[in-house]
Amino acid sequence: MRHACTLLLMLTVWPAMAAEKDTAAALFDGKSFAGWEGNLKHFRIEEGAIVAGSLKGKVPRNEFLCTKKRYGDFELRLKVKLVGKGDNAGIQFRSERIPNHHEVKGYQADMGGMWWGKLYDESRRRRVLAGVIDAAKLKAVLKIGDWNEYVIRCQGPRIQFWVNGVQTVDYTEQEKDIPRRGIIGLQIHGGAPSQASYKEIRIKEL
Length: 206
What we know:
With 206 residues, the protein is mainly β. It has one domain: Exo-inulinase, domain 1 (Jelly Rolls, Sandwich), CATH 2.60.120. Helices cover 12% and strands 45% of the residues. It has three helices and 15 strands. The strands form two sheets. Strands 1, 3, 4, 6, 11, 12, 13 and 15 form an eight-stranded antiparallel beta sheet that branches. Strands 2-5-14-7-8-9-10 form a seven-stranded antiparallel beta sheet, with no helix packed on it. It is globular, with a radius of gyration of 16 Å. Mean pLDDT is 91; it is low at 2-13 and 16-20.
């Protein structure tokens, strides 16, 4: 009985099992920007990863590489790495490009410094919608300057995050007019030198 309870707990905390991974679709092929659009002056591909920003100089402004396809209910899984003095980036979802502007508006799974694992509303409500459930647990598993696995799950109004297996967000949207479908985007934040890398990007539509 104890083993059965342990297994149930694992499924609750870490939602995607191996069988689910097998049914997920790759959003990035590791070698091209097929299916993506953005200002490629700020994004490049190195060793099978999308890399944004620079460690040699200031990042001029926020930039986003976005999917051409839109997604509603899904589980997104990817590995991320953030280095540099200005370590600030994030993963947009259920978002939209602002017309005639470099910015994107919508939900963001945040990365960097005190922002890791939080849910932010980029260029829309401009505030943190949900902080980290247990900061001590996140700190224990977070690999600063190295690869971390981020899982973003959206189903109806409910949004959940996990970082390296630790759940950081469980948020239910209360505003009825907030879109539940949109693009996915990879951000590098403007500011001091920094570099954000993204790889093994897979999505399972629910």
